[in-house]
Design a protein that fits this description.
The protein is α/β, with parallel strands linked by helices. The chain contains 13 helices and twelve strands. The longest helix has 21 residues, at about 295-315.
């Protein structure tokens, strides 16, 4: 059977989802660069650092040692044990290697979990601004994303109280701290409230902590792993080596959670990628067990860049940018700047910035939050200043 216009008929579930907006921005920026335009790209969520040398060396040794065959679908046992040990030592969580699985990046692990958990009729709570793939993965399972809104005035921190109108009707709650795109971090007392909600209602908590290494304070980061003893059968934690160790291309993510759920996601993966690359797993093991100094160096450089970009954006007329406590993004309110350029929405506004200033950003609509732009500061400080300078030239300077 063919679709109108030719080609095979596509699955109807794809009508509910769209291409990742962040990838779309990347492709548009590339197209401009191919035409000779100097684009300053604040769009990609990718470290601009190289993978640390000791991690690359471990990958090279894995090839030399012929670690090039299939592994367990969940990942090599030494890696799973090392991941479990890290959470035991840091948070007192007693997950074992049988409650850990690895996958082809954090996105893939989240997809596997969604396939194992969600089905038509399920409701899954997500807080906007959200990472772009959360609602799409829910929809691909036939489930319904229930979008709640974290408030700018509250630092974009998700609040457990906003779940109460949906109590007893949620299959799961997906949380992301530090948050992509806002950089918000859920404080310890709110982590406890979410755990209490899950314990009382039976909702599953999925905590994406991909950016946990990049927390700048005040205070310390609190992982949902601290609540593992309280809601062990209701909590699954997801993380990735991609951002922490500048290993985006190596594609290693992982989850820790109830054995029944990990086994179910493992079953899905056995019919999907089988497992992430054996060589990447060896490199990830070196990342966990080796020195963490490169991570500390990256974090301190991101902290400096964050302070630079926040100060610079607040000098642009129509921009209002908060100081985020985590990740490597800022999420300024640009509604006044949109009006200044007579743009109907942030999609139009972002396109004009790309075309007229050669500055690529991701519009807030991609994250469920119109009126905002996401800027990644995972690029060198001179480029940050040049890019924001172009915006100031286009829009004018804010009143002193």
């Amino acid at each position: 059977m063919t679709a109108p216009g030719g080609g095979p008929r596509l699955a109807k579930r794809l009508e509910a989802v769209s291409l990742s907006p962040t990838l779309a921005v990347m492709m548009e920026a590339k197209a401009l660069r191919d035409r000779g335009v100097d684009v300053i790209d604040f769009g990609p969520g990718e470290p601009d650092f190289d993978t640390p040398a000791h991690i690359k060396d471990a990958g090279t040794r894995a090839i030399a040692d012929n670690l090039t065959h299939y592994t367990d679908t969940s990942g090599i046992v030494d890696l799973r044990r090392a991941i479990a040990a890290r959470y035991r030592e840091t948070w007192g969580a007693d997950w074992t290697d049988s409650e850990v699985m690895t996958g082809c990046g954090g996105k893939n692990v989240l997809f596997l979990l969604a396939q194992a958990l969600f089905e038509p009729g399920d409701r899954v709570a997500i807080y906007a601004p959200y990472w772009v793939s959360f609602p799409e993965q829910v929809r691909l399972c036939g489930a319904e994303p229930i979008v709640l809104h974290a408030r700018e005035a509250d630092g974009f921190v998700p609040r457990a109280r906003d779940l109460e109108p949906h109590a007893g009707r949620l299959r799961a709650v997906i949380l992301n701290s530090p948050c992509n795109p806002s950089g918000a971090v859920i404080p310890a007392d709110e982590v406890e409230r979410f755990a209490a909600f899950a314990g009382r209602t039976g909702a599953v908590l999925i905590s994406d902590e991909t950016y946990d290494a990049f927390h700048y304070g005040p205070g310390t980061f609190t992982s949902f792993a601290a609540q593992a003893a309280r809601v062990r059968d209701r909590l699954v934690l997801v993380n990735s080596f991609s951002k922490t160790y500048a290993m985006t291309g190596w594609r290693v993510g992982y989850a820790l959670g109830p054995r029944s759920l990990i086994d179910a996601a493992r079953k899905v993966q056995s019919h999907d990628a089988t497992h992430t690359a054996s060589i990447s797993q060896a490199a990830a093991l070196a990342a966990v067990r080796g020195t963490q100094e490169p991570v500390i160096t990256m974090r301190e450089e991101y902290r400096r860049r964050r302070d630079v970009i926040v100060a610079a954006l607040n000098r642009v007329r129509g921009f209002s940018c908060r100081v985020p406590p985590g990740a490597f993004y800022v999420f300024p309110n640009v509604t006044a700047a949109e009006r200044r350029l007579d743009c109907a929405d942030t999609l139009v506004f972002a396109k004009r910035l790309m075309q007229e200033a050669g500055v690529a950003t991701v519009p807030g609509e991609a994250f469920g939050s119109p009126g905002y732009l996401r800027f990644s500061y995972a690029l060198a400080t001179p480029r940050i200043l040049e890019g924001v300078g172009r915006l100031e030239k286009l829009l004018g300077s804010a009143a002193p």
